[in-house]
């Protein structure tokens, strides 16, 4: 097969040639955009799921829908080592510019509020050179969004930005990836701000994406968060959508998969979008001609698995310390011991079973488990249980141990 025409492209957040299986979320979001722009009440949105299910891709697709609706949008990726002020200031700066409000004085005022909010990241007596600036020419507005209390300041900031959007009958969307990595105080402030904005009826929405435990992070911050957000679990693709993700791009390049090849591809990928792209890319490279057969998939599978072992699984495993790797391997072994009748849909295991594998007390393993939780390699779907954030990670660890 011609490698230049290979349509499959595995990558972090890279949109596949066929965004299959996400029509429901896209259609719902279009309705949300129109309702908010018309002053109707709507909740902000949270997308959750494992690594590799396409959360970032969908987040970007939702943002594109907002851009097409002529909304102002901004996006950032949360990081454990960074507080909220700087990234959300940059995102709002971009959103205000996209709005294109005709009244320059009103725009400058909001930009000044954004600047004041951002600069409050530094201590009040900090020197000018130590104050970060988001590249805004307008002077900072004193006495607005600069109190130093992130909850108060964020409410004022989003209120002013929302008022600017309301003038034009549009909205502002802030898109946050890896939302579970926000600092706890920032999570609380963001929830409070969304609550206030919703009550005020201003056209501002937050769309977040994160790992499966993100709802628990939000709930621990504000008890009303379960009513504040519309939660959408992003999972692996059903069979029909997975076939479309493979067959559609192939047909665009005058090629196709035989039914047996589609059966084999679903078996090895499990319907996970990243795996579909990864296996599809290698199968295309190694298949001699179209149509692609089940035999072609069998030949390509070892190389695809080797590529995933280095780039998808291995890179994450290398982030763990020796003690954390021991915990990960014990999780994989504990999961492998479970009979099918006792396995849940996320492949979680009891922390006590992990301790049994290692012959240690569960309490002694808490530091390793907590460190893995912070690194986003595992998550707790319920008390006393733990699961991998990466699909097929347990299978990978059992194959290399």
From TrEMBL:
- Pfam families xrefs: AAA_16
Q: State the UniProt keywords alphabetically.
A: Heme, Iron, Metal-binding
| Listed GO MF terms | electron transfer activity; heme binding; metal ion binding
Disordered: annotated segments = 1-23
Metal-binding in keyword set: yes
InterPro entries xref list? AAA_16, Cyt_c-like_dom, P-loop_NTPase
- Domain (Cytochrome c): residue spans on this chain: 166-354
**Highest taxon, organism lineage:** Bacteria
UniProt-listed Gene3D superfamilies: P-loop containing nucleotide triphosphate hydrolases
Keyword check for Metal-binding, yes or no.
yes
Q: What is the name listed in the Swiss-Prot or TrEMBL entry for this protein?
A: AAA ATPase-like protein
């Amino acid at each position: 097969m011609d490698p230049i025409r290979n349509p499959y492209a595995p990558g972090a957040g890279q949109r596949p040639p066929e965004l299959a299986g996400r029509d429901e979320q896209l259609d719902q979001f279009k309705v949300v955009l129109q309702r908010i722009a018309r002053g109707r009440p709507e909740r902000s949105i949270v997308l959750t799921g494992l690594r590799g299910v396409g959360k970032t891709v969908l987040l970007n697709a939702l943002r594109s829908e907002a851009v097409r609706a002529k909304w102002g949008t901004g996006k950032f990726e949360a990081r454990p080592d960074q507080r909220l002020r700087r990234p959300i200031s940059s995102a709002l700066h971009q959103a205000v510019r996209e709005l294109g409000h005709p009244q320059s004085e009103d725009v400058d005022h909001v930009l000044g509020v954004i600047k004041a909010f951002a600069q409050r990241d530094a201590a009040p007596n900090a020197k000018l050179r130590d104050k970060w600036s988001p590249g805004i020419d307008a002077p900072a507005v004193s006495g607005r969004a600069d109190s130093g209390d992130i909850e108060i300041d964020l409410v004022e900031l989003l209120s002013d930005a929302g008022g600017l959007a309301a003038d034009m009958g549009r909205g502002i969307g802030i898109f946050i990836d890896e939302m579970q990595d926000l600092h706890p105080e920032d999570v609380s402030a963001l929830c409070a701000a969304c609550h206030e904005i919703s009550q005020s009826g201003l056209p501002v929405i937050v769309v977040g994406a994160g790992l499966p435990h993100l709802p628990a992070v939000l709930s621990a911050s504000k008890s009303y968060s379960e009513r504040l957000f519309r939660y959408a679990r992003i999972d692996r693709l059903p069979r029909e959508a997975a076939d479309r993700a493979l067959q559609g791009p192939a047909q665009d390049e005058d090629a196709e998969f035989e039914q047996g090849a589609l059966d084999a591809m679903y078996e090895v990928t499990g319907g996970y979008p990243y795996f579909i792209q990864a296996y599809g890319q290698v199968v295309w490279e190694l298949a001699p001609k179209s149509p692609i057969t089940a035999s072609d998939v069998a030949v390509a599978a070892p190389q695809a698995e080797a590529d995933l072992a280095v780039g998808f699984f291995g890179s994450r495993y290398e982030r763990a310390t020796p003690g954390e790797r021991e915990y990960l391997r014990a999780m994989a072994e504990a999961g492998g011991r479970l009979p099918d009748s006792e396995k849940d849909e996320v492949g979680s295991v009891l922390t006590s079973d992990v301790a049994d594998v290692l012959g240690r007390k569960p309490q002694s393993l808490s530091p390793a488990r907590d460190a893995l939780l912070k690194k986003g390699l595992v998550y707790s779907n319920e008390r006393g249980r733990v699961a991998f954030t990466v699909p097929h990670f347990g299978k990978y660890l059992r194959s290399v141990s």
